[in-house]
Design goal:
CATH superfamily of the largest domain: Immunoglobulins
CATH topology of the largest domain: Immunoglobulin-like
Number of helices: 9
Shape: rod-shaped
Oligomer: single chain
Length: 512
């Protein structure tokens, strides 16, 4: 313990003698790259006080050789190199001289690490952003395909079934020469241009027409089997007039409802719906969580034509809904197992939470020397200063790069790969496509690039391949030369588009 302290004291003494024996060397750093505006100039010291006079002179090759010759322990020499300013001659001649003087390989490596690289004090200057083409997620085309097929089939069946219904109760424009009257979701009917008015009744009794040649064999099984769905409803209700729902859009099985204009039309066939009145309505619900009224186009005793409000937004998909038909006297018919499929929009994702950005957990890239700055959404005030993007990333290497002609040059920033996961999007949302923007550093010296930038979809994860860049300045770092001011890292931004229920935040599911 006492012996080690003695050597430390001797090292400090040698260093002090070396510092006092040398005149301060004025260095002019190589021009450093800048990012935005340079940092404010430091206030100059008062006149008469030499700048830097209170600073220690940097270590030189001679200082290290003196410590080695004096028998200073290697650990003390290494500590002195790592904690002191240095101005080493690392030219081939300088390195040969160190070796001939007995300086160990470990000490020489520490000298190279300390003397070959100096980070830029001024901010980086970046070039203009370069954008990539949109890369589509191959799996996204399959998203919702099965549901869309069901909706299309339902719409076709509803149109066919509606064509067999005699227009009674509430009628479209032109029927019986009267104005269009559509019953509201809360019952009653309104004339578009004349305020409220009672529902217009047809001169014929409420009934369902059969198709041509449907036969006149009454309720025979042959006639029943080949009759269209509306006629089936009449025949079934003749046997049992209890109020009930038989089919929706031609199917006994529960339907999927959507406000999407392409598919937003449905028919209900059943028994004893009666005539429309102020208390008549149709709706779907799930407990106290979900409730939507239908707009009623037509209503008669055995058939109803409905649609949802086409402007519905801010709703997520729903399962296990109950369909309710309530007639004018308040009696209800119900059927369970229906679904709600929200109308979709494709939108630019406003943000990606930090936990969805996962290079450190999901790739083999060595990031031990890299520090990441992750900003979402992107900001013009954060590197790489690319505004209007879902997220931007700045990988800054704190121990990479070096002088192009320096024997101590070790490594550049390697190319890397970041992964963005979308498994925490709310159900119903799918990542559809992405685009990338990159920016290069504006370097006064040589730029060394590693790898290429690009996007790749792997399942539903977005893989971002980024290029490592290193800015080098030549003719620096050696004896009598300025320090090397080097940047090494990577900068990019991404845009991601998703489809999902319109008017809903993709991450929280809350309406906006």
């Amino acid at each position: 313990m006492h012996r080690n302290m003695t050597w430390v004291v001797l090292a400090i003494a040698f260093y002090g003698l070396s510092a006092s024996a040398q005149q301060p060397v004025s260095t002019s750093p190589a021009q450093a790259p800048q990012l935005t505006a340079p940092e404010p100039q430091r206030q100059q010291p008062p006149s008469g006080r030499p700048q830097g006079s209170n600073r220690k002179a940097p270590l030189t090759n001679a200082d290290v050789v003196r410590m080695v010759k004096a028998g200073v322990p290697e650990s003390a020499i290494l500590s002195s190199i790592q904690s002191s300013p240095a101005k080493f001659d690392l030219s081939p001649e300088g390195l040969i001289g160190l070796r001939n003087a007995g300086v160990s390989q470990k000490v020489m490596e520490a000298m190279m690490a300390a003397g070959s690289v100096r980070r830029a004090a001024a901010p980086l200057k970046l070039g203009p952003a370069k954008t990539s083409s949109i890369v589509k997620n191959p799996r996204a085309a399959q998203a919702g395909a099965a549901t869309i097929a069901v909706l299309a089939k339902q719409r076709q069946a509803a149109e066919q079934e509606a064509s067999h219904m005699i227009k009674t109760g509430v009628h479209p424009a032109g029927l019986l020469g009267g104005p269009s009257r559509t019953m509201s979701s809360t019952g009653g009917s309104t004339a578009p241009n004349s305020g409220s008015a009672p529902a217009q009744r047809a001169s014929s009794p409420a009934m369902i027409s059969g198709s041509k040649g449907s036969g006149s064999s009454g309720n025979s099984s042959s006639s029943f089997a080949h009759a269209p769905q509306p006629l089936n409803a009449v025949l079934s209700c003749a046997l049992d007039p209890t109020i009930r729902i038989l089919n929706v859009s031609g199917e006994f099985s529960p339907a999927t409802f959507t406000p999407d204009a392409k598919y937003n039309f449905y028919t209900i066939t059943g028994c004893s719906f009666g005539d429309p009145g102020p208390n008549s309505k149709v709706y779907i619900y799930y407990q106290d969580i979900f409730h939507q009224n239908f707009q009623v186009q037509e209503w008669n005793d055995n058939g109803i034509k409905i649609n949802l409000n086409p402007s519905l937004r801010g709703l997520l998909d729903q399962d296990n809904l109950t369909l309710v038909v309530q007639r004018a006297d308040g009696k209800q018919a119900t059927k369970n197992g229906f679904k709600f499929y929200a109308a979709r929009d494709m939108t630019l994702l406003g943000r990606i939470p930090r936990e969805a950005f996962s290079l450190n957990h999901f790739t083999l890239t060595n990031t031990s020397d890299l520090k990441v700055t992750y900003t979402s959404p992107s900001s013009p005030n954060d590197i790489p200063n690319i505004s209007g993007y879902t997220a931007e990333v700045f990988w800054d290497c704190t121990d990479c790069g070096g002088k192009a002609d320096s024997p101590g040059f070790a490594h550049y920033t390697q190319a890397g790969e970041d992964i963005y996961q979308f498994k925490k999007l709310r159900p119903g949302f799918e990542a559809m496509q992405a685009a990338m923007a990159t920016t290069d550093i504006s370097c006064q010296g040589q730029i060394h690039n590693e790898g290429n930038s690009g996007l790749e979809w792997v399942g539903d994860d977005l893989h971002v391949h980024w290029q490592g860049q290193t800015c080098l300045t030549s003719g620096c770092g050696g004896f009598g030369q300025p320090d090397c001011f080097v940047f090494s890292g990577s900068m990019y931004a991404v845009n991601v588009w998703v489809t999902g229920p319109r008017g809903v935040d993709p991450w929280t599911g809350k309406p906006y």
